Amino acid sequence: MIGSKTILGIIGLGTVGGVGTTGVVYGPTAIEMIGIDDSELPEVEKGKSVTFKVSASGSSASLDCAGQAGSFVTLDIEKPKPDSQDYKEKLVCKRHNYERSPQKNEIKGSDGNSNFSCKRTFSKGIEQSFECSYPGKPLTISVKEESNDKFLAIQWS
User: Which whole-number Å values give the CA distances from 88 to 54, 81, 131, 143, 157, in the listed order?
Assistant: First the structure.
């Protein structure tokens, strides 16, 4: 009787140990197989402020986006106003009430401008960096303000 309990105990421990080992050995591979990577995981808590550093063609600027309770802050693109002659793209702070941060790793140009894009190159939650490009065109970045809201203006010639 004691022998059978001992054997069952050893088998039980082996099974539990096997499950743990399986998770450690195959867990990272399983995560890669289903397509989750670090850049898709939430990087900043709701309500936290974020500083976005954007660079292009040797020019760079930072946009400080204030946090808001219950919202994620992301960098997004917005179509410039029709009377905006001094810039072609506008990067703005956006707030979202989702379960996880919806920050995209690549931001495409507004109004179907597929040649312009900004790719995230670094993320540390409250500090994120993007590199913008437009093939064959030198870009300049500047901080501007409309209606008390700051944004990054992107221009090329």
Answer: 15, 9, 16, 13, 10
Question: Going along 4-156, which residue ranges are E strands?
Answer: 50-56, 59-65, 72-78, 89-96, 106-108, 117-123, 127-133, 139-146, 149-156
Question: What's at 31, amino acid-wise?
Answer: I
Q: Which of 67, 54, 72 is nearest to 119 (CA)?
A: 54
Dump pLDDT digits (tens) for 23-48. 444 544 544 444 445 445 447 888 99
> What are the angstrom distances between the C-alpha of 113 and each of 9, 40, 58, 101?
66, 25, 22, 25
Per-residue pLDDT for 154 more than 90? yes
